[in-house]
Specification:
Helix content: 40-55%
Order of helices and strands: EHEHEHEEHEEEHHHHHHHEHHH
Largest sheet: 9 strands, mixed
Radius of gyration: 23 Å
Oligomer: single chain
Number of helices: 14
Distance between the termini: 64 Å
């Protein structure tokens, strides 16, 4: 069985670090924690789990800190977690079982990252991340922000998940500040930096600037396909914010140049036609969302509601407006099955009850 070093970088994480380490300690044969300047009890908590606690100055560079943590690891594999990550009991059992079956041929292990949850605690936003990596020099982090390791060699996917349970808002504007510092220093942005810089501008409400950067990213030919498709969805959001809905729709349609329609894109296009009260065309796109299939191991962000709940809810409305009450009710029941506690579902339940009265 392979041995794993759990490698973490932390700063002022006293509220969540113990929770994370308790959930992960069974998986780790060694724990390496790198503190980048905590002013609370983070280091004390870390030292209660491991003697391998190091301190380095924070240099606005996540990759530099993560690579330092990997350099301190002595085991065959490195696994990374953020302090506000949690491994549930069910997923811990899965991961221990997978670990027991490792034969040393694995170079990169991809594990689902769940970063969003609905009101009932069900996963709503997921994507795969490179989570366990062979401890060697060619598998190291790149990027000051939104850092990543380029998977290579024997890449395997495990059917398990890490939950990102963020507490608090973190440092507002940190990522955008780092990108703008890089830009001011004349650093050349690769496609990944451009994509995430555009997203950070969007999150910061600077939508006109975000449009320029995201379009600059799309003009490149070396961007990752899933990032291109996501950039089209981000452009739709920006154009809507700027009151340019037609340009938003064109951005979504542009995504079809890069691959088969994603459920998230289909829902966005469907929304445009619903707003025009073109119920038939909207219904077409929501049906397309339901039929798009899942692409978990293909990469990219997966918004779970776009694969079921949202299309059924919107098809309920479209069918009702087209006078197809039986179909509308069928879609209502599907939405109810998926999210029975939803206020919209409860509203529709009452609506159909009144129709039958």
């Amino acid at each position: 069985m392979a041995e794993i070093s759990l490698c973490m970088i932390v700063k002022n994480e006293e509220k969540v670090l113990g929770r994370c380490l308790e959930s992960a300690k069974e998986l780790a044969d060694e724990i390496v924690i790198v503190d980048t300047g905590s002013e609370d009890r983070t280091r004390e908590i870390a030292e209660s789990y491991t003697s391998l606690v190091y301190e380095i100055p924070w240099r606005d560079n996540f990759s530099q800190a993560r690579n330092f943590s990997f350099s301190m690891a002595t085991k065959e594999y490195c696994m990374w977690l953020d302090a506000d990550d949690v491994i549930s009991e069910e997923n811990r059992r899965k991961l221990l079982e997978y670990k027991g079956k490792m034969d040393g041929t694995e170079d990169v292990v991809m594990i689902k990252y769940t970063a969003g949850f609905d009101e009932a605690g069900r996963p709503s936003f997921t994507y795969y991340r490179e989570r366990i990596l062979r401890n060697r020099e060619d598998l190291r982090w790149k990027g000051r922000v939104h850092e990543a390791v380029e998977p290579r060699g024997n890449v395997v996917y495990w059917d398990a998940a890490i939950f990102h349970r963020k507490e608090g808002s973190g440092e507002p504007g940190r990522n955008l500040r780092i990108y703008e510092k890089m830009r001011a220093a004349g650093e050349v942005f690769g496609p990944r930096e451009l994509f995430y810089y555009g997203r950070e501008l969007m999150y910061g409400g600077r939508t006109a600037e975000a449009v320029k950067v995201l379009e600059e990213f799309l003009e490149r030919e070396d961007g990752w396909t899933e990032n291109r498709i996501e950039a089209c969805e981000n452009l739709d959001f920006c154009f809507r914010s700027l009151g340019k809905r037609e340009e938003g729709l064109r951005a979504l349609l542009r995504s079809l140049e890069y691959g088969n329609p994603r459920a998230e894109i289909c829902c966005g296009i469907g929304q445009h036609f619903m707003e025009r009260e073109d119920w038939e065309t909207a219904a077409f796109w929501y049906e397309a969302a339901l039929g798009s299939g899942r692409r978990d191991t293909a990469g990219g962000f997966v918004r779970e509601d776009c694969h079921g709940y949202i299309p059924h809810m919107q098809l309920c409305v479209c069918c009702d407006r087209m006078g197809k009450q039986r179909e509308a009710y069928r879609h209502h029941l599907e939405a109810k099955r998926l999210r029975p506690e939803s206020d919209q579902v409860k509203y529709n339940e009452e609506y159909f009850r009144r129709l039958e009265a």
